[in-house]
Amino acid sequence: MILISNKFLWTNSPERNHYGREKFLKSTGKGFAMLLVSLLIILAGCGTITYGGIYDMTFCIPIGIVVMIAGFILIAGVKVVRPQEAVVYTLFGKYIGTLKEEGFHFINPFATSFNPVARDEARTEWRCEIKCQCRSSNG
Question: Do 71 and 53 contact (CB within 8 A), yes or no?
């Protein structure tokens, strides 16, 4: 059992977590399409700002900035899941679900994603390096 945060417990059992049943999310397959749409929205915002600057239409500049911010928010919702990996999603600290399908996925842009196994492996490697350095310096 691995403690991820003070709210969630990840167990090796695929069907149970600390609060009950684990939710497995299904991919909609729209991750790559949303990536392209987000990039087009950002480019449209740049074009609006440029148009407003060239033709002295100052009202176009704030509109372009708002459009670009909307594009950046949308692009934050595009997540990548690598092969043989699972990603846990939370929204403002509340568990949404686990995604196990590989590829590009679009989720709520304000949701936080993390891979509990990768965090544990990084923590183990860091501890090993510190122990090895302490042993070698002490003799």
Answer: no
CA distance 80 to 63: 30
pLDDT tens per residue, range 52-71: 999 999 999 999 999 999 99
Average predicted confidence (pLDDT) for the chain: 78
pLDDT in tens, 80-91: 888 888 889 999
- Report the b/e string of 25-36 with b at 16+ CB within 10 A: bebeeebeebbe
> What are residue 20's DSSP bridge partners?
17
Q: What are phi and psi for residue 99, nearest 5 degrees?
A: -115, 125
Q: Note if the pTM is more than 0.70.
A: no
Using only C-alpha atoms, the chain has a radius of gyration, in whole angstroms, of: 21
By CB atoms closer than 10 A (0-12, 13-18, 19+), residue 135 is exposed
Which burial class, exposed, middle or buried, applies to 99 when counting CB atoms under 10 A from its CB (0-12, 13-18, 19+)? buried
